[in-house]
Specification:
By secondary structure, the protein is an alpha+beta fold. It folds into two domains: 61 residues, no CATH class; 275 residues, Neuraminidase. Helices cover 14% and strands 32% of the residues. The strands form six sheets. A four-stranded antiparallel sheet has the order 3-2-1-23, with no helix packed on it. The protein has a four-stranded antiparallel sheet with strand order 4-5-6-7, with no helix packed on it. A four-stranded antiparallel sheet has the order 8-9-10-11, with no helix packed on it. A hairpin with a 3-residue loop joins strand 20 and strand 21. The longest helix has 25 residues. The N terminus is likely disordered.
Length: 367
């Protein structure tokens, strides 16, 4: 029975593959009509001239070769992912490519060096490095920086020296230091295009232009008075930022306030059960989905929600910072591997990381 079913399936597929596209049906019909008319004219002429061979002639006519069939364009093949990238041993000489089309934009020094009170090393394997997109190579930054966060696009990177924030130019290695104070240093986040920096203030947020150093402050209703554990503003879209809100009598997350980047006005409130991811690319490019922090009882369990309703719409399992690389793909970047998932939680690709990436903060973005 299985053999019969398989035979029928194959036959149906072959017939479907050989059928012309709908836009070719008229062409095929016209071709066949002309062929029939030619055969009719040939039959009449031969019948009038060759009366003796009247019995044989029809067979000869019917035995004639048929016209070549109309070519049929091949069906487009399903979209396939490019082979998973492989990181070379001398990775600093070219952009480190990851699944999903992302590249590594910066590497912070290993955390163990901070505990020992040491600065970053002077080599790519041990130091703080940023991707210089103009040369396609990684530059080692001079200076004792505790954290480096590369922009997802463009030539800049955030650098922290303790609580002090600065902006590094990856093409020159020069750093511009800012005196913003503790309330506006931690939790800084790049805009998706790398042209603006979002910082958290006591009364609202600040948007900084990394090229000029100019900034705009926006006060928000309530400021940080009711925010949850991770009290940082985050980009939701080019014109909106979000801030998680806690329940009245605890630090548990209750909702997400959405504010206008233009004037700081509260636009809407979205119910939540956990804190949104505050890192880069936490929102899908189409603005529909947002990643939220893992469950504390299971750090491998990851979720993303509908931005408008706060409802969980998908889950997957992975360890490490998660990033939307496309509307339907999520990249989880760990110190041992970078793994690409679809929205159903299926693993699509994986790229192994070099040993020297272990313990370092990894920034990602587009080339």
């Amino acid at each position: 029975m299985k053999y019969l079913e398989e035979s029928v399936r194959v036959a149906v597929e072959e017939l479907a593959a050989s059928a012309p596209y709908s836009h070719d049906l008229a062409t095929v019909a016209r071709s066949r009509g002309r062929r029939i008319r030619r055969r009719q004219q040939m039959a009449v002429g031969l019948a009038a001239v060759l009366l003796v061979g009247a019995v044989v002639t029809p067979y000869a006519i019917l035995d004639g070769r048929q016209a070549a069939p109309v070519p049929i364009a091949p069906s487009p093949s399903p979209t396939e992912l490019a082979p998973a990238p492989v990181i070379s041993e001398q990775w600093w000489k070219e952009p480190v490519r990851l699944p999903g089309g992302f590249v590594i934009t910066a590497l912070s020094q290993p955390g163990k060096r901070l505990g020992q009170g040491k600065s970053g090393g002077s080599t790519p394997q041990t130091g703080n490095v940023v991707l210089d997109r103009s040369t396609g190579r990684y530059r080692v930054l001079d200076g004792e920086f505790s954290t480096v966060i590369g922009a997802p696009a463009g030539k800049y990177a955030i650098v922290y020296r303790g609580q002090d924030l600065g902006i590094a130019d990856s093409t020159t290695g020069q750093v511009r230091q800012f005196d913003f104070g503790p309330a506006t240093s931690f939790g800084a986040q790049w805009s998706p295009d790398g042209t603006r920096l979002l910082l958290t203030r006591e009364n609202g947020f600040r948007i900084l232009d990394p090229a000029t150093g100019e900034h705009q402050d926006r006060d928000t209703p309530g400021g940080l008075s009711n925010c949850a554990d991770q009290c940082f503003f985050a980009w939701l879209s080019p014109t909106e930022v979000s801030l998680p809100q806690r329940q009245a009598s605890s630090q548990a997350v209750a909702a997400m306030h959405v504010f206008s980047t233009g004037n700081g006005a509260l636009l809407r409130t979205v119910p939540l059960v956990r804190t949104p991811v505050s890192g880069q690319n936490a929102v899908s490019p189409d603005g529909r989905h947002m990643l939220i922090d893992p469950d504390r009882n299971d750090m491998y369990a990851r979720e993303f929600i509908d931005v408008r309703s706060g409802r969980t719409v998908g889950t997957f399992r992975g360890i490490g910072p998660a990033h939307f690389v496309a509307d339907d793909q999520i990249l989880v970047v760990g110190s041992k591997a970078a793994v690409l998932y679809d929205l159903a939680g299926n693993e699509l690709q994986s790229t192994s990381m070099p040993p020297e990436f272990s313990g370092r903060r990894i920034s990602v973005g587009r080339l």
